[in-house]
Amino acid sequence: MKGQKIISIITILACLFTLIAGVMGLRYVSDQKDIKTKEGQEARANIDTLKDGMAKLESNRAAYDSGKADYDAGMAKYEAGLAEYNTGKATLDSKTAAYESGKASLVTAKTQLDAAAAKLAAAKTQLDAGKAKLTQYETAKAQLDAAAKTLAASKAQLDAGKAQLDANAAAYEAGKTQVAAGEAKAAQLQAGVEAAMKQGMTQEQALAYVLKSAGMTAEQYAAQKAALEAGQAKVKEYETNKAAYDAGMAKYEAGLAQYNAGKAQLDAQTATYTAGKAQYEAGLAQYNAGLAQYNAGKAKYEAGQKQIAEYEAGAAKLAAAEKQLADAKAQLEAGKAKLDEFEAGQAQIDEGKSKLMAIEEIAA
Prior knowledge:
The structure is a single chain. By secondary structure, the chain is mainly alpha-helical. It has helices at 20-23, 26-29, 40-59, 61-198, 203-214, 218-357, 360-363. α3 runs antiparallel to α6, α4 packs across α5 and α4 runs antiparallel to α6.
């Protein structure tokens, strides 16, 4: 309700009624009804006192009228404010039981919310730990799958190399025989050249002598040498490829053994992973449902807090208004006392005038 100041203190009447002390002397005048005519002179002397009181009363009448108007307006405002206060108090009183119940419920709700928050936090910790284990498994599986692809690619390359080696195996064996024969013949020629050089021939002379003895020309010798070198190169190439294949195969088999060991280990964990994943997903769904319920409860709790705060603000406002009304009522009562004092003086003057006029000598 509005905290309305009903009326400022009515001070304009504070000095209004000092005339009453003079008017009180009129009680003597009021006894003049029984005065005999011979006492008229003395009664007329009291008329001056009456006139002084009337003059003093009239000089303060404007202040009285103004104070009376202020009092009436203030009383109207006071009564309106009181009615508004009573309405507000009735409304607040009608909500008091709900307030007390709601306040108690909020305490319970806060306890439940705190417990739910702790439970959710613990569940989240477990979920995160479970997720970490799932991630570890999935990372290992991804690495294993990548290793399987690498092994497959290596095996394809090895198989292609093996096929090429197998295709060239016969040629390699024939070439190897030819190379051996060529190397033996070349060794024989070389031995002849060395023997001729020991007889004092130069290397060229010795070579020419040996070739002639063998029935070969220099061109034939050069062609034979080139063929031998080509054959040796092919034999070496085959053997290099064979060594690379063997090394690759050894590496592949080592990788395959490692892969198989990892796969066996992973396969042993698959059932645990599958069960753990199902448990994780169920726990996550339960956690999310609990989180949604917690958030709904929190929103309801905060709405309840707002209602409690509104009630308490209304109660505080009502208490302030009650004090303002009490202050205003006290001021109004003080003002009314001043007005009553003026009106009592007026009544005494009127009574004195009436009794004086009843005396024949005064009336004449």
